[in-house]
Fold this sequence. Notes:
mainly alpha; about 0% strand
Amino acid sequence: MTYLGRFSDQNNTFSAPIKLKIAHTLRVVREIRILAEHCNSGFIHPEIAECAALLHDIGRFQQYASFGTYDDRTSIDHAALGTVIIDQFNMLSQYPEAQQNLIRTAIIHHNHAFVPKNLQPDAHTLTHMLRDADKLDIWKLTIDQDMNKPVDTRISPENLERLRTFRKIPYAEVETKADARMFRISWIFDVHFMQTIQTILSRGYIGQMFSKLPRTKQLQEVQETIENLLQYRLKEHSLQPNNELQQSSLESGLSD
C-alpha cells in the first residue's frame, strides 16, 4: 500500500481502474490461501503463496499509469514489469534468495500461455497455484461485469471449434465479445488442481459464463460436455488412494 500511494490523487484516493486491481489482488490472496491449504503437498509455505498473490499484479499499476490500459498486447507485459518493480523497491528483501527466486518465477509465468515444463517442483507448484487462483477471481469478476450485458452472437467458428475440442483459445484470436467470453471459458482446460475444479463447479461458473453466449444447440452440448468432464474428473479422483484434491488430469491431458 505504501508503493500504491504514488498512484493516488491529492485526496489520497484511487481511480476506478486502480481500485479494481487492488480488489482483485486481495481476492487472489484469499483464493491462493485456500489452494495452499489443500494442494501444495508441503512444497510451499502458505505465506510464500500469499506473497506471490499479493505481488502478482504489481506491474498493473505502473502499466495503467503509463499506457492507460491493462491490455498487454498494446502496452507491456505486466508480469515482466512487475518483477522489475519488485526488485527496484526491494519488496522481497525479507526472504532468503531461494524464496525470492521462487516468488519471481511464479509471477513472471502467471500470465503466460503455458508454464515451462522444466521448472523445479516448488516453482511448478507455486506457479500453478497462482495461475489457478488468478483465474478463479477473474472468472468471478467477468461474470459480475457481464451480468447486465447483452448476449453477443458474433462467434468465431475457429474459436468455437477450439472450445468444442477442449483446447485453449489464443488471446490473439479474440475478436468479439463472444470470443472473449469463450476465451475465458477455455481457461478451464488449463487449471491444475482438483480443488480448483471443485470450486468452479460449486460456484456455478460454467453455466454463468455460457449464459452470455448464444443458446445454440451446439453451445449447449459443449457446456454439458465440459460440466460432465469436470464432474467425471472429480469422481475419478475421489476413487483413487490418498485422494487429496491436488493435481488435475485436465491440465496434463486436455490442455496439450
